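User: Run a structure prediction on this.
Assistant: Running it now.
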Amino acid sequence: MVVAAAKSLPAVRFAAFDLDGTLLDARGRLRPQLADRLAELAASGLAPLVVSGRAVRSFRELALARLPSSVLADEVLLGDGAVVLRRSTGRVTALRWLPAGVVRTLVDAGARDLVAETGGELVASSRRAALLYTRMYALGRSVVTVDPQPAHALGEVTAITVFDAPEDLARLLAVRHDTDRIGPFAALLIRPRGTCKASGLAAHLANRAGRPGLDAVTAFGDAFNDACLLASCRLGVAVEGADEVCARCAHVCLDQPLADFLSGFGPDSAARLSQAAVSRGVSRRRDVTPCSGAHRRPAPKSTHPPYQDPRPGRP
């Protein structure tokens, strides 16, 4: 039965990567040797693409954003899958957005310092909000525009960050949304309901490659917002030092640098590792569906057995 199911699966054609903590180090730089590894993946027939929680303006500040499309897919998914940026043209497409009037609702509820992302641009309601946002994400001040009345000028809003948000602000909002707390800055991040990397990537591939599912994808990540994606793809790989929730939802947990693991990696090895995970009893987490919120719940430490690479010559 397992063999028959494996034969019906499509070839693995895509490698989806988180940025911070996966491809990038703590200073936002591409980890050593990974540029070469991405080029090797592309040459092998496994197209590397980015699925990140970063805002468009934040992504554009990275050196990685200027990698050629022969190494990294031209279109990148940002905002945890809510936004698609075409690097070659700068075009931004929203896959999900918040209901119209949500900024006005927040202001009326007492939110004075907020930053909204719309059309790939960042608009702050105050200088203080702009300063806090750029400090939080280590960005230059010029990437955020200050408009004391942002509600009048915004189009499709894909994310809002509220600083010094009251504890009950999420409850006061009469809109459907997802929220996360950013502790050190007392900030509340608000995104469209159901935003997650898995659903965003599935929608993107359905639009661009005619593939509505994630059976053709190997995904790599390290944080709780990667967990849903890793659980939903053909092969989910939690990188070295990954968050416990992410590790629990992955099929493979690395104890070596990502560049070492990717050496010689390609479509065939991805398929073999996926089958090996099934053989070890680490099949895809059917209880973690895109946007279920299961990736946000606390989880115990990973119960994966020690990882053994089935590729010839690997330890």
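The domain at 2-94+196-296 is CATH 3.40.50.1000 (Rossmann fold).
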